Amino acid sequence: DFETWDSYSPQGRRPETQGPKYCHSSFDAITVDRQQQLYIFKGSHFWEVAADGNVSEPRPLQERWVGLPPNIEAAAVSLNDGDFYFFKA
């Protein structure tokens, strides 16, 4: 439910909107790991989307990747070793 999430709202959500969820929102980066788990990055948070479509709540980047700055511009996962790579200008 990315479309209704709002980092500036005290509850982290905007009022509900009509239509499909998360397909009309913008993101900083999206990548997939070797287990086909999708990672979506926006601002200082990320979501995990399982292969069955289940979406996690937004989590702080620092919770998983200590020192990673917000608003990354691209992300990739190595198919050889599973390491994440992040890019920011």
Keywords for this structure?
four-stranded antiparallel β-sheet; 89 residues; mainly beta
Task: Reconstruct the topology from this structure.
Elements lengths: L28 E4 L5 E5 L2 E5 L9 E2 H4 L9 E4 L6 E4 L2
Antiparallel strand pairs: 1-2, 2-3, 3-4, 5-6
Question: What features would you describe in this structure?
Answer:
The protein is mainly beta and 89 residues long. It has a domain at 29-87. Helix content is 4%, strand content 27%. It has 1 helix and 6 strands; from the N terminus they run ββββαββ. It has a 4-stranded antiparallel beta sheet with strand order 1-2-3-4. A hairpin with a 6-residue loop joins strand 5 (74-77) and strand 6. The longest helix is centred in the last third of the chain and has 4 residues, at 61-64.
The rough form would be described as globular
Number of helices: 1
The helical percent reads under 10%
State the order of secondary-structure elements, H for helix, E for strand.
EEEEHEE
Q: Please give the largest β-sheet.
A: 4 strands, antiparallel
Strand content: 25-35%
Q: Please list the strands of the largest sheet in the order they lie side by side.
A: 1-2-3-4
Unreliably modeled segments: 17-21
Briefly say what this structure is:
This is Matrix metallopeptidase 28. This protein is mainly beta and 89 residues long.
